[in-house]
Amino acid sequence: MGNILAVSGLTKQYPNFALRDITMNLPGGTIMGVVGENGAGKTTLMKLILGILNPDSGEIELFGNNRAMKSANVREQLGFVFDECRFHSCLTAKDVGNIMKGLYTTWDSEYFKKLCTLFFLLDGKKIKDYSKGMKMKLSIAAALAHHPKLLMLDEPTSGLDPVARDELLEIFQDFVSDEEHSIFFSSHITSDLEKIADYVAFLKNGKLCFSMEKEALRDTFTLLQCSENTAHMDRLKNITAGFRQKKFGCELLLKASPSEIHRILMATGDASAVAESASLEDIMLLYQGGQL
Ligand code: ATP
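That is the input. Now the predicted structure with adenosine-5'-triphosphate docked in place:
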């Protein structure tokens, strides 16, 4: 499976923030979920990949082409959605379709109409009268209707109710059902990423802490609930990636598999300790930094 996107050593410096030395790959037919707290650099990274911002250093290769953004053909193969609707508020969904038809040679009016019908957007309302969810659905329909190969989505499910989120997640999964298509998807809703992401990238303060297969996370991080004595054991020090004091005892995020932690715990005799694979949410809440 070839890479649809390959980023290496990407750096962007702002006066009070730097995205530092980002290296990651996105294979065809997969979904990469990007997580990180507010201000971690997710939108900046997406804008760099889309060519909206210029990096200070580093390489971006799209569809095997490292001069990608110079080519109109490559731009047609990219669909993107940011958390704000980019269309003028006086337009209707039909108007948006007519405008986009002139911008993309690959625009598929029938598909756009089908998506708008599915999302109940063809009632003649103007965007200014749309709800937040409707605006997001229109943006997604417009991003999909020119049949891009790579979809870049910045928090596409925020503001959507659970039914609409599920509908969209299904559309995203269909989109990557062959190896020609991939999605790069940032979200704070970790349950959405748990559902559909194949890879997870975690940004913190502009640094990529890790980018790996979601399934591999289970054996990479363990959440341990234990007594203070156990938490301060020498054998856990080197693998502790995060710590939280709880009302009763402590919670540790450990860089090791649950089975390794079980082996260590056997020696402690702390019968109250519970070790299990950390969820994405546990990792986001507890991870203190450093690179895996
Ligand atoms: P959120 O989850 O809140 O959307 P994010 O992870 O997408 O956050 P970014 O929008 O990439 O974060 O912002 C990362 C940092 O870059 C922030 O500290 C922000 O203030 C800074 N930043 C973004 N754009 C600019 C700019 N044009 N000039 C200076 N600093 C900027």
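The mean pLDDT is 90.
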